[in-house]
């Protein structure tokens, strides 16, 4: 897997101050995407053990609230294969999900990620989802673009509190720290 960028002290892609990893590779290719260069799986630099160690170090300070994955597309199967062992390392080092949350953005819906036989579902998907606290899902739709939305670009996208969703057994949306059943 390649990645395009690592941002330290990011305040735009999740709550609080975050470390953000922009992975490379995306088959969704949404019209109006803000980072079309990341569609190419070979864009950027290789994601190595040194890269993992760098991110783990960046996550250490108390003022860092967590890790955000976006791209490109973290849920492309070839990216999941690399990200899952890395997320295991993150959870091993920071086992308390409330102290270091993990957010992920995806152009796929949660339903697509869970549906057997659908792209991009693979043998890594369920475990990867289990490590994520908040999922921003759905493709960016140019016709539904709304720059006033928090943490999403178009009105069809959802910010899902996966921890509460697992508890409730149905999708629970995250909104300014307040969850809404939907």
Automatic annotation (TrEMBL):
Q: Which gene encodes it?
A: nrdG
A GO molecular-function descriptor: metal ion binding
Cofactor(s) recorded for this entry are: [4Fe-4S] cluster
Source species, please? Baileyella intestinalis
Keywords, comma-separated and alphabetical: 4Fe-4S, Iron, Iron-sulfur, Metal-binding, Oxidoreductase, S-adenosyl-L-methionine
Q: Which family does it belong to?
A: Belongs to the organic radical-activating enzymes family.
Q: Could you tell me what this protein is called?
A: Anaerobic ribonucleoside-triphosphate reductase-activating protein
What's the domain of life for this entry?
Bacteria
At the top of the EC hierarchy, this enzyme's class is: oxidoreductase
What CDD domains does the record point to?
Radical_SAM
EC number annotated for this UniProt entry: 1.97.1.-
Q: What does this protein do?
A: Activation of anaerobic ribonucleoside-triphosphate reductase under anaerobic conditions by generation of an organic free radical, using S-adenosylmethionine and reduced flavodoxin as cosubstrates to produce 5'-deoxy-adenosine.
């Amino acid at each position: 897997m390649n990645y395009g960028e690592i941002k330290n002290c990011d305040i735009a892609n999740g709550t609080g101050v975050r470390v953000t990893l922009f992975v490379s590779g995306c088959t969704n290719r949404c019209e109006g995407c803000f980072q079309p260069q990341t569609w190419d799986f070979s864009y950027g630099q290789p994601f190595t053990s040194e890269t993992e160690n760098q991110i783990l170090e960046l996550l250490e300070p108390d003022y860092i609230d967590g890790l955000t994955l976006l791209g490109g597309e973290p849920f492309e199967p070839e990216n999941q294969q690399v990200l899952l062992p890395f997320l295991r390392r993150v959870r091993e080092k920071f086992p308390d999900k409330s102290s270091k949350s993990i957010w992920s953005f995806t152009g796929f819906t949660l339903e697509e990620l869970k549906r057997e036989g659908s792209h991009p579902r693979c043998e890594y998907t369920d475990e990867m989802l289990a490590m994520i606290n908040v999922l921003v899902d759905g493709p960016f739709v140019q016709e539904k673009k709304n720059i006033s939305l928090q943490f999403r670009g178009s009105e069809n996208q959802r910010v899902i509190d996966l921890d509460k969703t697992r508890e409730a057994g149905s999708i629970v949306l995250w909104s300014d720290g307040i969850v809404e059943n939907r």
